[in-house]
Amino acid sequence: MGGVTESIQRARATTASYSITMRIHAGTDPAVIGALAVKVAESGGITTALDIVDSHPDRLVIDLTCSASNAEHSNEVVDAVETLEGVRVHKVSDRVFLMHLGGKISVESKVNLRNRQDLAMAYTPGVGRVSQALAEHPEDVPKLTIKGNSVAVVTDGSAVLGLGNIGPMAALPVMEGKAALFKRFADIDAWPICIDTTDVDEIVRTVELIAPGFGGINLEDIAAPRCFEVEAKLRERLSIPVFHDDQHGTAIVVLAALKNALRCIDKKLPDARIVVSGGGAAGSAIVQLLLAAGAIDVTVSDRPGLLNKADESLTPAWRELAEKTNPRGLTGTLRDGLQGADVFIGVSAPRILQPEWIDEMADQRIVFALANPDPEVDIYEATQRATVVASGRSDYPNQINNVLAFPGVFRGLLDARATDVTTEMLIKAADAIASVVTDEQLNPNYIIPSVFQPDMSKTVAKAIVDCVPKAPAQSIPMTGAN
């Protein structure tokens, strides 16, 4: 029984992030197909596809696709399959790396260039008329160029996912993925901009120089506190919206999920005792938005313990948080802060929350363990102790995923020709996401909609547009027309 239980536990944690396809040469015994699936299951993997790609009188060529929990586990699954008599694993392909071959995005023309007339209109000499018109009426650039539907995804590669400072080139696949999400969920053309410097002024100046070609700037994976400075300076200097997704995108989705989680325990945001683990970029933004949305009793925990304004050793960023939080004046460790708390929100580090500490929270408690890829507490353990549990993982219910927010936010910003991002917009975006989950759908395992929920981006975009004052309509100049 112990072996079976272990396999079940491991299979539960498998993910497409570690998905492999084995090209297998085997005999023609009909039992081999079932034997392969059993071996994968016994080793804790999950078979997602099994195809016979070629057949010979004495041999079958089989493609077996399965998911594992990590790279080491993938190797274990392959080794288990190779123990079958008459089976040889000819080749193993990592499906994640196959998806990234040659990059994930491309540039495509929106107009057909079939003949000389098309060329003369799309390029010279016709394009000169458009350029001249825009020189005279720069306000129309978003209408007549890609600027009106383009976003720069900017990083210095200093805080990439859970990998840390891996540099701008290694960050490029992540920025490509972000651009692909912009296109898939909001039909926005986004461009990866990986900057080879961590100097604040150089980053700001670089973005400032390229800004004319974009309708918005999405800052991504820039380490704190540098990200705060970069965002503040760019917002001051640019007339297009600047959005730091690691901060504001995360905060929007956390607020949306928390509002619905509190509905599950019949509690209002101002009445909830909230502990946030992590006072970095994401944690700071979450706290600021929770307070703006009406939360009152919020306490932050980080390396010094519970942030308290009486602690003179705090850094400026932590001191700013401490001044706005911890109304009870709590001191001590994360565990001390959790005594009787209603909500734990983790945006910090793996395994810093012991499962038994959850039992010391309020009778009905909410746990958001959002550290990725390894959360602050084992999610299975948390579900045995908390009323509502959410994580950043896709293999458990209630995934807190920024893709619920940023495509719709930028769709709205671009459509409204907004010049900045306001706190009101962030709150309205969170309300829009939360509202997608109806009273009939709401339960502790469904507090946040799927990223594939139809019209999600449109719902968020409308909330953003409604926050932007309407500008008078202008016609496109027809330079040279009679």
Automatic annotation (TrEMBL):
Residues 247-469 form the Malic enzyme NAD-binding domain. InterPro entries: Aminoacid_DH-like_N_sf (IPR046346), Malate_Decarboxylase (IPR051674), Malic_N_dom (IPR012301), Malic_N_dom_sf (IPR037062), Malic_NAD-bd (IPR012302), Malic_NAD-bd_bact_type (IPR045213), Malic_OxRdtase (IPR001891), NAD(P)-bd_dom_sf (IPR036291). Residues 102-235 form the Malic enzyme N-terminal domain. Keywords: Metal-binding, Oxidoreductase. Belongs to the malic enzymes family. Pfam families: malic (PF00390), Malic_M (PF03949). This is Malate dehydrogenase.
